[in-house]
Write a structure and sequence with these properties.
The structure is a single chain. This protein is about 75% helix and about 0% strand. The chain is globular and about 85 Å long. The chain is an all-alpha fold. It folds into 2 domains: about 70 residues, no CATH class; about 220 residues, MetI-like (MetI-like fold), CATH 1.10.3720. It contains 12 helices and no strands. Helix 1 packs antiparallel against helix 12, helix 5 runs parallel beside helix 12 and helix 7 crosses helix 10. The N and C termini lie close together (about 10 Å). InterPro entries: BPD_transp_1_N, MetI-like, MetI-like_sf. It is a multi-pass membrane protein. It comes from Microvirga puerhi. It is found in: Cell membrane.
Length: about 325
């Protein structure tokens, strides 16, 4: 197992290195002159001022040298200074990180936890009217955009539950009830496509598992249907489920960017969009790198769980 984990760690480092290069190069393809934008519309833009600011932010150096300086500092936890606020980029990210993590966690919790019993039920009732209805509902859940669902939920709750707080963000430590109340609707909006996708996956995997010889043997021994389904069949059905959960986490991180805008949540999504509009190089690079690193780390954890659940991988 240690050899497999070491191999996964090496892959993780290689992926992060490749992503850092891509992020560093891609943001420099954004149209517009970052230095002119930083100087602002109310400032007289002269070649001297542009050259001075270029030198101050390091944009006058060769691009390879720029990358090496940035990557070396990032490895030490120094992502530079925000070009607009003057605050350390790491501080900006930490300030906006928790709302995004909480939204992602709650959405994944709702979607993944509900997907297992729903998928098992769909597999057990295969061919019935309930199975068909739930499959149609799952397809609908996959096609509904999260931001549109979020807007509909806001309208519905404002009409039928006027006192319900659905916009903004309150830290859990300050007001637990207010925090969960404001995070409920965005979590549901993000979780619905996850629930629809994973429940269909669990249904398919369960149908395959229930047709295996070891399941027939378990039934022949007189075990209850509940034991057969949830103890024997579900263990093998969870293998593709775990893999998809890692992929869905990346989807949630991306979807949170738009949903945070809809619900006015001050998370990484709003931070990234603001940084792109301002051409804030250090903040864009660091934020995208942190989000990508989170996605890669989640997949590393999923790989580890995959090894634990499926002994064949350790062979």
């Amino acid at each position: 197992m240690s050899r497999i984990l070491l191999s996964r760690l090496i892959d993780l480092v290689v992926v992060l290195f490749g992503v850092s290069i891509i992020v560093f190069l891609m943001i420099r393809l954004i149209p517009g002159d970052a230095v002119a934008i930083m100087l602002g519309a109310n400032t007289e833009i002269t070649p001297e001022r542009m050259a001075e600011l270029n030198s101050r932010v390091g944009l006058d150096k060769p691009i390879v040298q720029q990358y090496l300086v940035w990557a070396g500092a990032a490895l030490r936890g120094d992502f530079g200074t925000s070009l607009w606020t003057g605050r350390p980029v790491a501080t900006e990210i930490i300030t906006n990180l928790w709302p995004t993590l909480e939204l992602t966690f709650l959405s994944l919790l709702i979607g993944a936890v509900l997907a297992v019993p729903v998928g098992c039920w769909m597999a057990q009732t295969r061919g019935s009217g309930m199975d068909v209805a739930m499959r149609i509902g799952a397809i609908a859940g996959l096609t509904i955009p999260s931001f549109w669902l979020g807007i509909v939920l806001i309208l519905l709750f404002s009409a039928f539950v006027p006192g319900f707080s659905s916009l903004g963000y309150v830290p859990f430590s300050e007001d637990p009830f207010g925090n969960l109340q404001r995070m409920l609707l965005p979590s549901i909006a993000l979780a619905l496509p996850i629930l629809a996708n994973l429940s269909r996956l669990v249904r398919s995997a369960m149908l395959d598992a229930l047709g295996q010889d070891y399941v027939r043997t378990a039934r022949a021994k007189g075990l209850s249907e509940r034991t057969v389904v949830y103890k024997h069949a579900l263990r093998n059905a969870l293998i593709p489920f775990l893999t998809s959960v890692g992929i869905m986490t990346g989807y949630l991180l991306g979807g949170a960017i738009v949903v945070e805008q809809v619900f006015a949540i001050p998370g990484l999504g709003r931070l990234i969009l603001g940084a792109i509009a301002e051409r804030n190089y250090p903040l864009i690079q660091a934020t995208i790198l942190v989000v990508t690193a989170g996605f890669v780390l989640v997949n590393f954890v999923v790989d580890f769980l995959y090894i634990v659940v499926d002994p064949r991988v350790r062979a």
